[in-house]
Specification:
single chain, about 190 residues, alpha+beta, 11 strands
Length: about 190
């Protein structure tokens, strides 16, 4: 049996990143509901996030400020992947101070996205592991302002932040739908 680690990975910069970065970070800092996640058995040590409110609170101010610009970006990415529309399931931020990270995990929808809102020089980037040998790790060359989109079933992690500067990502899951008949090759 031949095992391949080929999948759909898309890296697209968010055009308005420079324009919105400070506002979104400020709104995240001002948000009252947040949590610290720590579970050493799963390799989870996230300094600050709002995962717990990601499904039920769609009125968080930072989400509103970001979605004005992210909506068109997601429409373009969805079309680039060959789909007609997307449905956003949940969205949350994660901040990683020195010595924090997020161990190997997967998500439940069609697509997972990571927007690198704050990625200082030398910060760890999202990594992916080959499920067939569980040793080969792949990392994409992303930079601050990039959105990395990948299938939610792909095993990935946020390696431990060894630097002294904070890293902030915004992640979301989304489902996509095909346009009926879009790939039919038969003509009647």
């Amino acid at each position: 049996m031949k095992h391949l680690l080929e999948s759909c990975f898309v890296i697209n910069p968010l055009k308005e990143h420079t324009e919105i970065k400070e506002q979104v970070l400020q709104l995240i800092d001002e948000q009252e509901l947040f949590e610290t996640l720590y579970d050493p058995t799963d390799g989870v040590n996230i300094t600050k996030c709002d995962w717990g409110t990601s499904r039920w609170d769609r009125n968080r101010q930072w989400v509103g400020a970001l979605m004005k610009h992210l909506g068109p970006h997601l429409q373009d990415t969805t079309k680039e992947l060959g789909y007609v529309e997307f449905t956003l399931q949940e969205m949350w931020y994660q901040q990683y101070e020195q010595s924090s990270g997020h161990g190997w995990h997967v998500h439940g929808q069609n697509w997972t996205n990571v927007y690198f809102l704050e990625l200082p020089e030398g910060s760890p980037k999202t990594q992916f592991i080959n499920p067939f040998n569980q040793t080969t790790i792949r990392e994409f060359e992303v930079k601050e302002g990039d959105v990395l989109t990948f299938p939610s079933y792909v095993i990935h992690r946020a390696p431990i932040n060894r630097g002294s500067e904070r890293k902030t990502i915004i992640s979301w899951n989304m489902d996509t739908e095909l346009k009926p008949g879009a790939y039919d090759n038969e003509r009647h």
